[in-house]
Amino acid sequence: MPKFVSDGQLPIFDRLKALGVSPLGAVLLVVLALFPLVVQDEYLLRLLISSMIFGSLAMAFDFTAGFINIVNFGYAAFWGLGAYTSGLLAVKLGLTPWLGIFAGALIAGIVGLGLGILTLRLAGIFASCMAWFVALALMAVASNWVTLTRGNSGLSVPLFFDSPENLPYYYVVFALTIITYAVLTLVTRSRVGLAFKAIGQNLPAAQASGINPTKYRIINFTLSCTLAGLIGGFYAHFVGILGPNVMHTSHTIEVMAIAYVGGRGSIWGGLVSALILIPLMEYLKPFMELRLIMYGALLVFVMLFYPQGLSGIYYGVKEFFRRKIAARGMDAPHHN
Amino acid sequence: MELSQIWELVLTAILRGGLYSLMAVGLSLVFGVMNIPNFAHGEFYMLGAYVSYFIFSTFNMGPIAAILAAMVATFVIGAIVEKLFFYPLRMRSKDQWLMNTFLVTLGISIMFQNGARVIWGSTYRGITEYWPGKLALVSEMRIASDRVIGFGIAMVAIAVFWVFLNKTSLGRAIRAVSQDENGALLMGISLNNIHTVTFALSCMLAGLAGASLLAINPAYPIMGVVPLYKSWFVLILVGMGNVGASVFGGLIVGVLETFSYYMFGAGWQDAISLLIIIIILVFKPAGLFARKGVKTVWEQ
Amino acid sequence: MRGFLRSGKCKKLAVLLVAVMVLTIVAGCGGGSKQGSQEPKEKVVKIGVLGPFTGPSARTGDEFKGATQMAFEAIDYKVGDYKVELKWIDDESDPEKAARAYEEAVVKDKIDAGLGNWNSEVSVSVMDVAAKYKIPHFFAFGATEVVNEKYKSDPEKYSYWVGKGWPTPSLLSIAYVNTLDEAIQKGIWKPKNKKVAIYGVDNDWGRSFAKAIDKQLKDAGWEVVNQSFVAKGETEFYPLLKKLKDLDTSLLVGTMVDPSSVSSFIKQSREVGLKSMIVCDGLGWVGEWYNLTGKASDYVIDQIPQWTTPEAKKFKEDFAKKLGFEPSPSGAGLNYDWSRYMIKVLQSTYDSYGKIDRETLYKTAKEKIMTGQLTFTEGVIMNEYKFTPETFPDPVVGKGYYIFPVIQYFDGKGTIVWPEDWKEADIKVPAGIQ
After folding, report:
1. What pTM did the predictor assign?
2. Cis omega before residue A168 (within 30°)?
3. Residue of C58, C233, C260 lying closest to B126 (CB–CB)
């Protein structure tokens, strides 16, 4: 982890460092921020919007999986809950999406809290299984409560903006991505975050130091689900049509794969991974099924050889160069 | 409900559950012995179905030949997969084993599903029946012979498997590895071979399930997804790693689904079955028959 | 020097520099791709063909692709002095991915028009993209009311969604009610009661069909005692069939698109001893259906167009030879016809305006197709493919236009039992039910 070096000259930079944004990360964010102003390609914008949606979802997923070591196998249901809540409020009550997405986040968070209280007392895998079943049940309810959700016929949801351009959507999702990243990083770097890591890595030791694992797990899980709901709300008003399939396990797996390829426990890994994988998969589309076979092979390859994911590779490379520079520093005579 | 109606339902439930049991036993074995949550289990079911289809339909050999061929094919492919993917992973690191292997099996699953589509296309390879005729077992129901024989095959396979696990030296070696790897190693058991055989056996059982029910479930590339989920339901309900109990678990899930289908229907049956499983898990989160001793999954 | 290199100022500068570099490169690439494509010497019209080429509905996607290819091969991909290029847009049956892929086709590949699709949800999400770029999209198969509702919410904006290749289920399902009523009136069928149970696959199609036929049956005096929905791909129907048997209905109506589901449903209905007349919409949907279902399908009623004309039979043979599997009349057959209608549209546009592009195609759509002036009568499946302002976005359904005959299966072949003009035989009622 990069050390806290305070130059005292530029507080902005220190604050960025506090958020875990390395210079490289800062470059990425600046590029993302200015991208639409420079590139007018609507398609690329849409691609990046999708990447940011999945990237944010992956980051929030990693928050739970990478830190407290619990795989939320029902993740897509919280994403779906946020989407349906925001969508239904807009359709039935005419609530503006700007508020709707927060309502979505709230509902997803409440359900996440409830589920957490119910199951996070137990070992991780049981919580994962329970989350899976709850997600399946929610999907079944969404399918069958046709009078409310229109079930599998599909719910038409009003879009954020009347104009069809992608630019406004881009900045909304960019803002959401920044919020997600900032919130998650701030929490993981706080004392609460330390507790998460302790619980995730060495439970008995954590308990011995007086940390109540269940309480922290619930905090983590609830926050993760809330963010999923927030992004789900955006998803609803971006795609414009919603079906119970949003909550399908295959979507959880999509996010999971992105998060893990990005590297667990890194947060930013999920975003970078999405920004690479999603455009990559799009460009490979002409290959039809071959593209998916390659995707499967990629997963296997990464898990076999680089299980720490992109973030692992990044830190590994950094470490390698740091050692080289340090070694050279020791040999060379001191200049000034 | 009259008695005969209940009897009909129970029979239906048992027939449905038999398939689940067969699939779940294989899954449970791999999870208990190798600690791999196999997400590609359904794809071996699919491979078994395809192989049996080609042997039966294209080469016109009998049903027995078709099913045997499927078993052999899935055993071999399973062994290859184990050696190719899980052996290197074992050699490299056991860190984060559970999730790593899960994602590896996910990758395998994606490759197999799409590979099947590329090789065999999307058309549905099915047959009308293996064994002609119907059996009148109960009141007006004329159950297809296929279904009864398929169930019979499943039960025989499970019985044979039980004998294998408990009475043969290889079977005992497998159980030894599942209980204590280091101890088994000290006893001179070759871990690598045991792992390969275990995985191959699990795939063989899935392939058997896919092959024996070809008349009910035609072969197509993504046919393995639902059986996979159902197998996991059984495992989670019963206690992961408990191979014996997964037999009963299959029947339990079968009964649960049958009755909720009958009583609630109209699309709500899935929600109800799931709700019941959730309630059971709330009270017994490790499963109904969770056993201590098999690797619990606190350890990663 | 080293002091400067380490200072915050330097780092900030570096960040900005790199960011600007990356942006310029990207901008250069993005701009370059626009300039790089020179004006082709040949005149080309690009058509984006939308469909589920991978994913859960890939079976249908295969048929559509094959049929469209055959239609355009027959004209050697030439209309007037234009060369036709097809761009396959894979929607993966997912609305979000579909919109992405469609936008890519518009922005990067610069398609001039769109053709076809299968899932209704995909239709709804792509409608917005087509409207955004003013791309006329023709004859999409997404059939359920959600498409009509979206269209009606803003007909001007969505006028770029030129017609549905498959009418709303309610327009077709009424034929079943008519057929059965006729049989009752003629005395061919004396049902023991007027109770009916409805079943369907749990997706937009199944739900839409069930809703439509529920109303139509009730209006015709039937009592609907049960509506059941099954998950896609389900093959275990004993519990459901037992329940339906115990309800003692004289009629069972429904739809299941998945070949594995529908074949198991019918086979198991015989095993359970169900004593109802069975209507199963979509039993014969895929070419290989009889291999899966067998004799259990006798007496089942369905609505599938048949390969009746010599041209139709030829198409079927050619398709099977070229692609290696049996086409379905309602899948590949219909798509073949709509593709050829598309070709007619291209030709007509060329003849009227001398050039084929988005604007001229849209004009043809608005002035000729939506008004019913330009129709297609050389189909192998339907008599006439036509739209009118009243029926739009659905095609005109009825005798002489788009109509599915109601058929009854025996030995894997469908005998037409309705409408009267085409009838080959009366409905037969199996012995146990009368």
Report:
1. 0.89
2. no
3. C260
